[in-house]
Amino acid sequence: MTQTLRDSTLEDGSCDYVYSSHFFEHLEYRHGLQLMRGYNRALRPGGVFRVSLPNFKGLFDAYLRGDEVYVDLIDILALLPEVEPGTEMLVEHINYGVYQYGEHKCIYDEDKVILLLQKIVYSSVTLSSYQEGMDLGEEARRRYSFYVEAVK
């Protein structure tokens, strides 16, 4: 049986802050939307939902520009050992980023996340930036992520 956030122990209005990092892309779209609504329900008025997701738009832009420098933090042969050494190209970064061994189920970009959170009726939804001490600090995570904050 699938548990929903409504079934969880989080009471309505019981949270001041909810943080999610690189999680929603692993959920089917409908489950991600359900969870975003549940977070809104669990937040107190003025509470904040902060989400960090993979920056696929940046990855696709780099691919279209042929920008190998953008992906230089990723050892693609270590991540995709099935790729024949000497044949690796930018497209492998797209394959890994989008599919990640079949674990990614949905792609979001900044515009989609902002629109969804506005429709869920957060009072303020803004594109944010990396926050030291809050977000994972490794350089690859900073470069390949985007951040959105929504206030209930």
Question: Can you offer a commentary on this structure?
Answer:
This protein is of the alpha+beta class and 152 residues long. The chain has a single domain (5-151), classed as 3-Layer(aba) Sandwich (Rossmann fold). Helices cover 35% and strands 20% of the residues. It is built from six helices and four strands; from the N terminus they run E-H-E-H-H-H-H-E-H-E. It has helices at 29-42, 56-65, 76-79, 90-99, 110-119, 139-143; strands at 15-21, 43-54, 124-128, 145-151. Strands 1-2-4-3 form a four-stranded mixed sheet. Helix 1 (29-42) links the parallel strand 1 (15-21) and strand 2. Helix 2 packs antiparallel against helix 4 (90-99). The longest helix is centred in the N-terminal third of the chain and has 14 residues, at 29-42. The chain is elongated and about 55 Å long. The mean pLDDT is 93.
Which descriptors would you attach to this protein?
152 residues, alpha+beta, Rossmann fold, 4-stranded mixed β-sheet, 6 helices, 20% strand
Task: Please sum up the structure shown.
The protein has 6 helices and 4 strands. It is an alpha+beta fold and 152 residues long.
SSE diagram, text form:
Layout: E1 15-21, H1 29-42, E2 43-54, H2 56-65, H3 76-79, H4 90-99, H5 110-119, E3 124-128, H6 139-143, E4 145-151
Parallel strand pairs: 1-2
Antiparallel strand pairs: 2-4, 3-4
Helix pairs in contact: 2-4
